[in-house]
Amino acid sequence: MAAYSDRLALVTGATSGIGEATVQKLVDGGARVIATGRRQERLNALKDRLGEVVETAVLDMTDTAAVKAFADGLGETPDILVNNAGLALGVQGADEASLDDWDRMIDTNIRGLVHLTRALLPRMKPLDRADVINISSVAGSYPYPGGNAYGGTKAFVTQFSLNLRADLLGSKVRVTSVEPGLTETEFSEVRLHGDKSSAAKIYDGTDNLTAQDIARVIGDILALPPHVNINRVEIMPVCQAFSPFAIHRS
Ligand SMILES: NC(=O)c1ccc[n+]([C@@H]2O[C@H](COP(=O)([O-])OP(=O)(O)OC[C@H]3O[C@@H](n4cnc5c(N)ncnc54)[C@H](OP(=O)(O)O)[C@@H]3O)[C@@H](O)[C@H]2O)c1
Questions:
Q1: What was the pLDDT predicted at 2?
Q2: Whose CA is nearest to atom 36 of ligand 1?
Q3: Which domains does the chain have, with CATH numbers?
Q4: Contact present, 67 and 116 (Cβ < 8 Å)
Q5: Could you tell me the distance, in angstroms and rounded to a whole number, from the CA of residue 13 to the centre of ligand 1?
Q6: What is the overall mean pLDDT for the chain?
Q7: What predicted TM-score, i.e. pTM, was given to this entire model?
Q8: Residue with the nearest Cα to atom 23 of ligand 1?
C-alpha cells in the first residue's frame, strides 16, 4: 500500500515552492489533497498536472472570515493539515522596516495559520489518525539582522506547535514544527518585493535545500508509525551554519 493512500491532506500555499512540492509528494504516496493559495492559475495548473486526486480552492490566509468559511464548508475533514502558506517581506532593520510588511507577515504567518488550525481542530481531534505540520523556519530560533518580524512570526509558529501538542495530549493528533533553512523557492523574490536578480544572488554558489528536500522530510514524518511524534525538525543545507555573535566596537 502506498504510504498515504487512505489520507486526505490540506496544504496551504500550494501554488509554489515547499507547498507545491508537498502536494506532489503526498499525491505520489497515494493521498488525496486539497490545495489552496491565492493564485487561481497556479492552482489550475496543479490540478491539470495531478488530476482528480487534487481539489483546489482560492484562499487568502489573511482573510480570516474566508478561512473560517472555507474550513466550515469542507465536506470531509482532512486528516493531514500542512500549514505552509507564509512569507517574509523586507530586509530592513526594525527602525526602517515597513509596518505594512510586518502586518502582512503577522496576518499570514500567524493569524491565518491559527484561524485555520482552530477551525479544523475540533474535527481532527476525534480522528483515529491526524497530523498537523506547521512550516516554521530556522529564523524562529536564530536572530539575524533584518529578520525582525519574520523571525518573530516563525518563533510563534514553533511555540504554537509545541503548545498544540500539550493541548492535544490524549488524542491521536500529531503535531510537528518543520524549520527549514536556506531553501530555493520564490521566497526571496517575494521578500525582495519582486527583485528577481537580487533574489537569485542569495542562492548563487550555494548547494541550497530544494522544496523537494523539505517535502521529503514532511513525507518521512507522516510515514512514521502513528505512535511516533516528531516535535520539531530543523533542516539546513550543509553549506549553511551559524554566525558568531556580532560585537560592535567604538
Ligand atoms: N524558502 C526558504 O528559505 C524558507 C525557509 C524557512 C521557512 N520557509 C517557509 O516555508 C513556507 C513556504 O515558503 P516557500 O519557501 O515555499 O516560498 P514560496 O515559493 O514563495 O511559496 C509561498 C506560498 O505561500 C502562499 N501564500 C503567501 N501569502 C499567502 C496568503 N496571504 N494567502 C494564501 N497563501 C499565501 C503563496 O501562494 P499565493 O501567492 O498563490 O497565495 C505560495 O504558495 C513559508 O511559510 C516560509 O516562511 C521558507
A1: 85
A2: 13
A3: 8-235 (3.40.50.720)
A4: yes
A5: 6
A6: 98
A7: 0.98
A8: 13
